[in-house]
Amino acid sequence: MTEHSELQKITKFKAWMLAARPKTLPAAAIPVIVGTALALGDRSFNFGPALAALLAALLIQVGTNFANDVFDFKKGTDTQERTGPLRVTNAGLLTPNQVLAGMWVVFGVSFLIGLYLVVIGGWPILLIGILSIFSGIVYTGGPYPLGYNGLGDIFVFIFFGPVAVCATYYLQAGTVSTISYWASLPAGFLVTAILVVNNLRDIETDRKGGKKTLAVRLGAKSTQVEYIVLLAFSYAVPVVIWLAGLTTAMILITWFSLPLAVLLFKDIFSNKGSSLNETLAETARLGFLYGILFSLGYVIDKLIL
Question: Could you tell me the domains of the chain?
Answer without folding.
Answer: 3-303 (1.10.600)
